[in-house]
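Side project, low priority. Logging it here so it doesn't get lost.
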Amino acid sequence: MADGKTKGTPKGTEKGSAFDLLHEEVRSLVKERFRSPTPIQRMVIPEVMAGRNVLILSETGSGKTESALLPIFDRMQRESLPPISTLYMTPLRSLNRDLLGRITWWSQKLGFDVSVRHGDTPQYERTMHAQNPPDMMISTPETLQALLTGKLMRAHLANIRFIVVDEVHELVAGKRGVQLSVGLERLKKLIRAAGGKDPQIVCLSATVGNPNDVAGYFMRDAKVVNTEKGERVRLTVVAPATAKAADDETETDAKRRIDFIASAIEKKQSMLVFTNTREAAERLSSRLKSSRPDLPVQTHHSSLSREVRMKAEDEFKAGKLKALLCTSSLELGIDIGLVDFVIQYGSPRQVSKMLQRVGRAGHSLGRTSEGVIIATGVDDAFESAVIAKMAIEGRMEPCRVYGQSLDVLAHQAVGMSMELWEAPLAEILETTAKAAPFHALRSRDVLDVCAVLQKAGYAWLNAKEDAKADGHEERMMKMEEIVTLARQAGWEKSLFPKLVLKRRKPAFSYYFGNLTTIPDVKSYKVFDIVSRQNVGTLDAEFVSLHGGPGAEFIVNGHGWRMIEVAEDRILAEPLHSYDAAIPAWEGELIPVPYEVAQEVGMLRAAVKRDGKAALKDYPVSPEAAKMMVDAAQKHERMPGADELSLEYGLLEGDAYLVVHSCFGSLVNETLGRAVSSLLASKFGSIGLKADAYRIVFRLGDITQWRDVAAVLRGLEPGILRQALELSLPDTDLFRWRFSHVARRFGIISRDADVGKPYLKKVIEAYRGSPVFREALNELFQEKLDVERASDVLRLMTAGKVKVSESAGLSYFARLGILKRYELVGEPRPEHEIFAIFRERILGTKIGLVCTNCTNVAYMGTVGEADAFECRRCGSRLLASVPLKRVQEAKALLENHVKKKAMTAEERAIVDRLLAGSYLVVASGADALKVLAGRGIGPSTAGRILARMSHGDGLLRDILEAEKSYAKTRRFWQDR
């Protein structure tokens, strides 16, 4: 169903409506698709037809796609436009596919060609695009970068009259938007050079809190057209509870939430269940399928293959599935048919996220979008209540737009050198600075970036012929000269205009190998040391930041401790307690904005003061309200939104200082990192954990709280950024970001697996360079908010943010320290873990080979072996061998018996087989169990058996030996 389509047979358009402005052929087709213009179409169509640049802000299902396209179809009918006249940009290939299906209907009726171009487009189709280009091309931001360098395609791109950019809110928040903004300026320059005018740009977006900032990102002099659904959003925050029998002690909060979702799926025709992370979607799906195997549900997220996602989308649209458990992968406008209801599992953390997600329900004009947010804890309930109220009222936090990025500049500079053979630096500066993110770009930035490209071998800097008169001969300049020139006063006027960037041969592989700004993320498979089963995966970023033997983490709903980190896998043991474990999805969580956190602070204080009455204007269920009121009453004095309340004390033997600060995720992270960095020289490392409502410092000694408090009170806005710039380069987070930036600059191969020692050397070699500065820039733009944090410090100085101190840790302080995470399974008892290990050891398949006559005396599992004597010769010297190695062992023992020559390696294997057979003679079945342990050779097995342990005691000794082997495997020779 097309956007805005309503049921029934259309009877024609409204008299005097926006549709009447359209060409007759387009207008006649509109009658087949729409009864009348939607509100957004009434407002947008005249603006686009008047030739204005327009930002369209509206929810899914409002008809905004057609509001942008119908005027373009009109122009196609009125004028003979050369191909390619229209470029439609989408951030996801899945949207490309969905959009092509919708536009094809119009193209077949109106007689124009439409085609999709992206990274996976076959070479045959690419050749056809160059030789016989379509009238309209649907593409991605990355593909535009490739098209801009092709000789034939550049000629066709010069004909572009209209550009539509879809899902703009997704693009402007990251480097893909930065890249596209420069790409569009390069495209405009190409069109102008061919004698054309700047193309008309129409951007489509979900509603955002700062539309003017978003509109100015890709367009100049843009008209903002905004229609909000507002009163047609119905949201409720729930905390599911069920009556449980007095003797039922096993039912958990998570179980009740699962039952609530299952019940909702049964009652509704079709629904989406959104989670904030891929892990949560998988875990929720697993639990639902386990508790209700008959429920037709499936998982949908970006880590799944395209085929799996398409199958889920098609089956949901066809009614074969009643629910999809998804992440942000289904926030965008992919057509999946009718959705009745939306469940958000846990707080969506941002109002804009909630509106996008609930907007998928009632995906047609005039219907109310209905959904619930399932609160998974106290913090979650307060946050969800605020977000739900703001969403209903149409109040949104501003969208953070991404600024200048030097790695993007490097890529674009090489692209321009490929277009022009030699690109004047002044021209690179002029073109790039027209893009909104680069409005403050300086000539020295361009020179520094080009110097890095020269050092990497992708281009070289030259002075043009007319510079020889100034004493600068045409040659490749040395790095030292570049630095010297950059420091000379007035060099920008005298020499900079004469410098050019010439591409070198490796420029092509660099440019096309870095079309995407999205980093390639390596994954590690996690194996349970007890069962030897694969239990999940961890992203390389998580391992880089938190990894190493002994690190505790949560994956697949359970807690684990790393035993061994290898090249592509991690060996881990199960945890009985999750208190210190870090969830694998923590890095995926989007930040809670300042605006939301401030309202949460006000609501918490109001609930503390007025109880349930404070919640009368909030859409919360009675159970959720009770949870919030009960929690507020547990806090002696609830700090408000304009306070910093410091609490210090001991919890489970550790000393903490908790700063209650309702300033949002990024501000609290900024303040916490700055304070901890300034104290590092005095105390060394101080544990830091920040969320949207508190900053938690883990202290070495309780007396240190005074020093932390003093630094926080004395922190000045002017030194905040400086303190962070000095401390961040020593963090794993910076090193991880640097590795991605270095790949975008091309100084590290995109597929290289770089270890920490090597990476530290590269960082030191490029300290102070654009690569180094851009890694810091990423952290400041994505993980921190120095500007807002500085505002908070200024308000503290002015007394408008009050600071108080108190001894003891309140309920909300302990909540932050011992934070639990949604969808974490119950800790598995030790006896269950041990039972899995016992089953694995006893179920290990082996063969017993006689070392005397080489007969295979037994093949089966360790647990079933009951005879330890060769039936052929009667010898008890039996070597235990993994079943797949039996024939190999038999052949080596035959050579041994026949005294044939063997290599040193073969002799070593035979010696181990003989040593193992002596243990079988002495200890029988116990020897087989020990030798079945991973990494346990005869000498280690002998030490274990010498302890005379039996039964479970022996198995525990085997398990400890396996762990020891995993930790020291690099140095272990005893196999």
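Brief comment: The longest helix spans residues 904-923.
Revisit when time allows.
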